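Re: the 92-residue chain
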Amino acid sequence: MADRYLNGANVNELAAEFRCTRQTVALRLKEHGVVMRNQPATAEEIARVIELYASGLSLVGVAERTRFSPKSVLNYLRAEGVQLRDTHGRDR
């Protein structure tokens, strides 16, 4: 199961293949030390996103330096109430 996940299979595919729930798949993978993909940001990661954006980086620039997409970066910044800039770098 872990090998299949590490080679690209997702949790839903594995659950169907092994006839169990997604939660069981996730539990078994974690028990074997597999780091799960697409996990929500930690408080430290969100603080880093805010720090990078405040340094002047664009959403894409922040995304390139983190594990998040530009859309996720935008969502985290909005959720934290960060003042966003327009495409020319000016405050909105």
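The chain has a mean pLDDT of 93.
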